[in-house]
Amino acid sequence: MTPEKDSFTGGKDYTRWTTPVGRFLVRWVRVLAGWIGPHWAMLLILVVGGGLAVSLAVASAEVYEAVAETDGIAIIDQPALDASVQLRNPALVALATGFTFLGGPIAMPILTAAAIAALCFRRRSVTPLILVAVAAAGSLLMTVLGKNAIGRLRPPLEFAVPPYESSPSFPSGHTLNAMVITGIIAYLLVLSEHRKRTRALIVAAALLFTFLMAATRVYLGHHWVTDVVVAATLGLGWLAVVITTHRLWLTLSSRHSDR
Question: How far apart are the C-alpha atoms of 19 and 24, rounded to whole Å?
Fold first, then answer.
């Protein structure tokens, strides 16, 4: 890792925690690092954060199931699917199918590997590899456990556009992975970019990619709206855990180098 490169972005010191909660977290992590060492402290934080994220994934499935039984949030699913079917035309379907392929099990790993290689080469560091690997592992775990926890059926095949998918519908793995992978890559790009406007464009591009991925999943009839909404929320939560852990690592490394 390279704390000197990552600690400052656009004049902001990422090792400074201005909120009471942030300062409390740093004090707690310093004590923990003193007991078991900084590397193990970061690993423990990721495990605990990952456990919370996975628990949230399972809990969200249970909450959804309970609400769906009373025609709560699920009441938006069928109307959204009906609207998507009405809006379809050959050109948009072809575009949506091509775009959603980017978030699939073939294209997404290839694109991610290319991004990691470029970032590692640019930064002369393995930090991108570590952060993306950790983020992707958590995203995959949440997807698998979330799907198995509820086993929700996808929209009927007569409303779907081929190629058809048979895995459980809740949550949307495409959306969750898009949020996490593009989010962590955007974070790494922001760390090395000093222009505020460029940083804003990077974040906007990552959010737009995730939104379009979620929208195409519903548009093509591969997922219900609630599948993609919960997936985006879960992805954002896990992304926050990974980024916070990295900032804590930067803080500990910076304090250690000042000694």
Answer: 9
- Please give the full DSSP string across 74-94, using - where no structure is assigned: GGGHHHHHHHHHHH--HHHHH
HSE of 192, CA atoms in CB hemisphere, 13 A: 15
| Rounded CA separation 232/182 (Å) | 12
Asked if residue 171 lies in contact with residue 57, where contact means CB atoms within 8 angstroms, the answer is yes
Residue located via tokens 């972005």: 9
Residues 146, 257 contacting (CB under 8 angstroms): no
Encode the chain (259 residues) as per-residue pLDDT tens digits: 444 456 555 556 666 776 777 777 777 777 777 777 766 677 777 777 777 766 766 666 665 665 555 555 567 888 899 999 999 999 999 999 999 999 998 999 999 999 999 999 988 888 899 899 989 998 888 888 878 877 788 999 999 999 888 888 888 999 999 999 999 999 999 888 878 899 999 999 999 999 999 999 999 999 988 889 888 988 988 898 898 888 888 787 765 444 4
Q: Which of 39, 222, 223, 256 is catalytic?
A: 223
223 is catalytic: yes
Query: Is 39 a known active-site residue?
Result: no
In terms of CATH architecture, what is 13-257? Up-down Bundle (1.20)
Spot the catalytic one: 174, 194, 222, 256. 174
Buried b (16+ CB within 10 A) or exposed e, 112-124: beebbeebbeebe
Mapping DSSP to helix (H, G, I), strand (E, B) and coil, where does residue 193 land?
Answer: coil
